[in-house]
Amino acid sequence: MFTPIIDSLLIFSIITPIIGFFTKKKSSCLICGVVSIGGYIVSMAYLLHLLPQIFRNPIRIPVKASLVSTSIIIDVPGSLMSLLALALGLFVTVYSIRFMERDSGTPLYYSLILAMITGIVGASYSGDLFTLFIFWELMCITSYVLVGFRRNVKESVEAAIKYMLMSGVGSATILFGMSLLYGLTGTLNLPRIALSLKAGEGGPWLYTSLGMLITGFGIKAAIVPLHVWVPDAYAAAPSPISAVIAGASTELAVFVICKLLFFIFPAIKVSWMEFFSAFAVLNMILGNIVGLLQSDVKRMLAYSSVAHIGYIFIGIAAGTRLGLTAALLHIF
After folding, report:
1. If you write DSSP's letter for every residue of 241-294 in order, what string do you get?
2. Whole-angstrom Cα distance, residue 210 to residue 186?
3. Cβ-based neighbours of 170, under 8 Å, separated by 6 or more
């Protein structure tokens, strides 16, 4: 359907709860965990097999009968982001076999993690705005459920609702920004959008579109003051899920922002460099100071993540290839 890297994850996310339905409750956590591990291994093996080819030339997978010429672009930055997500999903699943053995509904838990990683990998490889939004929403929706997975714990449910409301606003803002960008350029294809903007199309509405996209993805990236969901979500979610959100989900948002700024909106670089400089300082100061005041380790780590986003923004704010390299290196 897309590429075996993504398809294998989708297939295993469907198979896992089915297998869990036919296994005993005591053994379902172990069996479904092992099945999920198989999904990550298959996907990683295929990606590693493609790496030599990807380093030579990106792999473009066309979509027939579509408004866009390319749905998936398997390139080096997207592959590095995908490897990060797949490796983290694999390690988190291995850890969860013991950590979640006393919880009920573990087959669904493993299936949701697989779907969440699928969303991250798919968004990393997206070659058009529609595909990006679909995989982004897959990642977001599954993460809401996983944060509130322990529904008998009040704090988990409250954190999941808060996270869902803020992220829902972000998704709506992203959709408006994408719609405006499509109206300005007449295409959803990212390379074509870049060519249209380079030719001088867009005008003042271009800044509005960019602002909406940065705000929407910025909520997930924990840009101050849009970070307020982070401490509660990290603290209330099961520890493996906190690791995935901190290590892959938030990084995906920053990765998409980098992709937009440097490859889609480079013509207005001067406009956003100072903006990101200011927010880099805010993230670093607030994240570190408030983090030191926390007594809960997971909340302290949440604010540490906010501070680290500020470090990444320094590289973005530089607006140079070296700065982008530094930002991506910090992400990976």
Report:
1. HHHHIIIIIHHHHHHHHHHIIIIISGGGHHHHHHHHHHHHHHHHHHHHHHHHT-
2. 16
3. 215, 216, 217, 218, 219, 220, 226
Closest to 215 (Cα-Cα) out of 169, 251, 274: 169
71 belongs to a structural domain: yes
**319 in any annotated domain:** no
Measured CA to CA, the distance from residue 159 to residue 298 in angstroms comes to 13
Closest CA to 217 of 119, 136, 118: 136
Does 121 map to a domain? yes
Q: How many domains does the chain have?
A: 1
Cα separation, 82 vs 6, whole angstroms:
10
Q: Are 277 and 129 in contact (CB under 8 A)?
A: no
pLDDT tens sequence for the chain (332 residues): 667 888 889 999 999 888 888 887 777 788 888 889 999 999 999 999 888 888 888 887 765 545 544 578 888 888 888 999 999 999 999 998 888 777 777 888 899 999 999 999 999 988 888 888 999 999 999 998 888 888 887 888 888 888 888 888 989 999 998 888 888 888 888 878 877 777 665 567 778 888 889 889 988 888 888 888 888 888 888 888 888 888 788 889 988 988 888 887 765 655 667 778 888 888 899 888 988 888 888 888 888 888 888 888 888 887 778 888 888 888 77
pTM of the model: 0.90
Range of 81's domain? Answer: 1-125
